[in-house]
Design brief:
Layout lengths: L1 E5 L3 H12 L5 E6 L2 H10 L4 E5 L7 H7 L5 E6 L5 H6 L4 E4 L4 H26 L1 E6 L2 E6 L3 E7 L2 E6 L6 E4 L2 H5 L7 E5 L2 E4 L3 E5 L2 E4 L4 E3 L6 H7 L2
Parallel strand pairs: 1-2, 1-3, 3-4, 4-5
Antiparallel strand pairs: 6-7, 8-9, 8-12, 9-10, 11-12, 13-14, 14-15
Length: 231
């Protein structure tokens, strides 16, 4: 979990750096005693967790966080209790009062790790499925269940290996392809998308799937055959 610490007090940064180094799961990308420099770094780098002081001369921690377009998990550090309400309004994960004890720091880090792992699990789940609207409801389709996808004018049919009935949804092949992992699905025809892992063989511009289904490969997508050969 990548983290950054921003505090205008060098001693406070040293303490945070010491605490962070005790957790192998934390990777400290940098420490900043200048809020402006810290802001510039956050704009150009992906950070999971930010430890930030609230009282700083040029730019307060509250203002800095509120200006971030992409906001990491936030743990505010400060010597003043009066800012707690403002901190939690910015959806801060935790709020540490100085002087910060090792026990209190550890609790905050474990809270951040739980949140981080939850986000990762949701991302992994999303990466293994696609959600489409069909028959006035949202349906989650596992990518591993897709046999092939067929275009039908303004609609597409998502043929599933677990059902004889395909899912019909108002979408183009281009639109669904943008929501699928590009290294796992390929368009082989103006009317068809196939999962690469299901392709058993290719002969005379026809793809044969492991399910024994045969689909045509059009001239516009012959590059798929070359890509498939080297996989």
């Amino acid at each position: 979990m990548k983290c950054v610490a921003i505090d205008d007090e060098p001693l406070a940064l040293q303490i945070l750096q010491k605490y962070i180094s005790a957790f192998p799961m934390l990777e400290l990308l940098g420490t900043f005693d200048d809020a402006i420099e810290g802001t510039a770094f956050l704009k150009d780098n992906t950070v999971d967790l930010l430890f930030i002081d609230i009282n700083m001369p040029d730019l307060s921690g509250l203002d800095l966080v509120s200006r971030l377009e992409t906001r990491p998990m936030i743990i505010f550090t400060t010597a003043h209790k009066k800012f707690a309400h403002e901190g939690f309004e910015l959806e801060a994960l935790d709020y540490l009062l100085k002087p910060i004890t090792t026990e209190r720091f550890e609790r905050a880090v474990h809270k951040a790790l739980e949140q981080y792992q939850f986000k990762k699990s949701r991302q992994n789940e999303a990466a293994e499925s696609v959600i489409v609207r069909s028959e006035y409801k949202m349906i989650k389709i596992l990518l591993s269940d897709i046999e092939f996808i067929e275009s039908m004018e303004d609609y597409i049919k998502i043929h599933l290996m677990s059902s004889k009935h395909p899912v019909l949804t108002l979408m183009s092949l281009k639109g669904i392809l943008e929501n699928l992992p590009e290294n796992r699905f390929s368009r082989i025809h103006r009317s068809y998308i196939v999962p690469d892992a299901l392709v058993k063989s290719i002969q005379t511009k026809k793809v044969k799937l492991l399910t024994d289904r045969e689909l045509p490969v059009s001239d516009s997508y012959l590059d798929f055959i070359e890509r498939w050969k080297i996989r």
